[in-house]
Amino acid sequence: MNDQVIDPVGADADCPARGPSGEMRVALPSADAVTTLAEAREAIDGLDAALATLLEHRTAVAAVVQRLKPVGGFAGRDPERERRIVEAMAARAPSLGPERLAPIVNAIIEAGLDAAESGR
């Protein structure tokens, strides 16, 4: 498995996936290297844990955005910006493409807005 460093600003030093400088290390297993169901599930569990951590950080930063925007919440959504986010993600995940990523990004944005409105 290869590690890739993801460096979220303001990273939690207590998170077990964090390195000494605050970066988050994520194992990115090659699909070709996974040969058993147990290995596949372990790889997915690690990726899911990293996704959850990233989503938590994204939600916190998105809450700041909501406070800074003149019109926040669901009314302040910017469809053009959301389209650009989907396109940028599709460039990093070409096997998913924008058609599959759009509903995922929408769900992430809506969950973040809901968390910000409810104070988490």
UniProtKB/TrEMBL annotation:
<protein>
    <submittedName>
        <fullName>Chorismate mutase</fullName>
    </submittedName>
</protein>
<dbReference type="InterPro" id="IPR002701">
    <property type="entry name" value="CM_II_prokaryot"/>
</dbReference>
<dbReference type="InterPro" id="IPR036979">
    <property type="entry name" value="CM_dom_sf"/>
</dbReference>
<dbReference type="GO" id="GO:0004106">
    <property type="term" value="F:chorismate mutase activity"/>
</dbReference>
<feature type="domain" description="Chorismate mutase">
    <location>
        <begin position="31"/>
        <end position="120"/>
    </location>
</feature>
<feature type="region of interest" description="Disordered">
    <location>
        <begin position="1"/>
        <end position="20"/>
    </location>
</feature>
<dbReference type="Pfam" id="PF01817">
    <property type="entry name" value="CM_2"/>
</dbReference>
<dbReference type="GO" id="GO:0046417">
    <property type="term" value="P:chorismate metabolic process"/>
</dbReference>
<dbReference type="InterPro" id="IPR036263">
    <property type="entry name" value="Chorismate_II_sf"/>
</dbReference>
